[in-house]
Amino acid sequence: MRWNDFSRSLLFAAVAAAGFAPFAMLTTPWLSVSWALALYALACGPLYLSGLGSSRRRGVRSALLAAVLGGVALLVAGSPREAIVLAAVIAGLVRSGVVYHRPLARAALIEAGLLGVGLGVAQLLIASSTLSIVLAIWGFFLVQSVFFLVGGACRERSTRGGDAFERAVDQVNAILRDASV
């Protein structure tokens, strides 16, 4: 399943939030709740990115990159809070830098805004109960869904001018570019 538009991204937000409760039940005998949340955030990033790509191959590559970066983040994070922030930054960087190639200034502005607001909403919603953590995860991913409304994932413009042969060549090149990524 892909969640590379606004409505399906909202569905991903609900599923990702609902998944924390069983994950916490499985991991809290060995980890604190805050480290369980950090580990969950680092796992959700690659899962989120896997469904954003225009092709399955691009989604898998993005997810693998985010998983490797998440592993490094887990090793260098001194606290669960740092790990959670790193998970969000990794997801944003891979989303705008790998999944959707956007100009640096535009991508930085969109990602800084969405990640900042998303983490702020999560901070407002989170408390000590599992339900509040679920709501915080949901709130974070709801804000991330706005990415598709602000033009973060706008498609490349196809050439409308020219003859039919030029348009066909452009379409073949686009297919080959997506297949090679």
What is the topology?
Blueprint: H1 6-27, H2 33-50, H3 56-76, H4 80-99, H5 104-125, H6 130-145, H7 164-180
Question: Explain this structure to me?
Answer:
The chain is mostly helical. Helix content is 75%, strand content 0%. The longest helix has 22 residues, at 6-27. The chain is elongated and about 65 Å long. The mean pLDDT is 87.
Helix content: over 70%
Which regions are unreliable across 5 or more consecutive residues at pLDDT < 50?
none
Number of helices: 7
Quaternary? single chain
Pattern of helices and strands? HHHHHHH
What characterizes the major β-sheet? none
Average pLDDT rating: 87
Distance between the termini: 19 Å
Radius of gyration, CA atoms, in whole angstroms: 18 Å
Structural class: mainly alpha
What is the molecular shape? elongated
**β-sheet strand percentage:** under 5%
Query: Using DSSP, what is the number of strands?
Result: 0
What's this, in brief?
This protein is mostly helical and 181 residues long. Helix content is 75%, strand content 0%.
